[in-house]
Amino acid sequence: MTGTDLLRTGVGRHRPWPACRRCCGIALDMGGARTRAWIAGKGVVVDVPTVAFPGAGAVYPVRRGTIVDAEGCARMLERLLAPRVPRLTRPLVIVTTPVLDGVAYRAGARAAVAVLEPCGVLTVPGARAVAVAAGADLSRPLLVVDIGAQLTEAVLLSDGAVTDAHHAAVGTNDLDTPGSAEQLVDVVGAMLAEMLRQDRTSLTVDALHHGILLAGGGALRPEITYRLTGRLHAPLRVVPAPHTAAVRGAARLLQSAQVHPSTCAPQPPVARPD
Length: 274
Prior knowledge:
274 residues; Nucleotidyltransferase, domain 5; five-stranded mixed sheet; 8 helices
């Protein structure tokens, strides 16, 4: 059974995930600037800078969409989340990932999340999580542009799966010089133009016709949204609370995964040190 299979909503004959002390679910979005976590029954409980403190100084374990220090991420998650996980539980964890650095990011994320002693770890592309949070119609082509603090992604989804994607190591953290907003918009325009050029189908055109879904902290910057609207000549829809869309979408997918029979089997208790 693959992670994708687990993410398909199945409610009909599937029994709900039992509400017991051994059951817990965590949705996690670790970005270069901020880390956000959602815990079943508690909502978003963590929205803090992505930083670890191994000694006297601060370490930034995620940079430009890449986990550069898995041990640092593990220390951060242990500090932020371990005290919030009920004793004797093994949480099911779902982690959002960048599209084009997925393999390396997934490996680093799994290594970091191991500190929480999960019963399972699922991963989902951040763009799909954004679409789910927005309640988008995944049965038709969809373009998602996610402008984060350190990374910008343009992703084409078809039937909910990633069909094409481009990214650039630039984001809102780089908006500190005159003209930088215009340069960021140029980057997004160039990525979408390249997607159109390479597409041998009508998926990208169809997605543009229906409109672009905009998420990430950049969607809160009027100097960006205004310029994008004028540059792209396509409808632009900003996801509600765009900076937390990825973790909220992951939370919805986690709730779907929790009703899957393969995640409902009883798990042995975990002995945690006092």
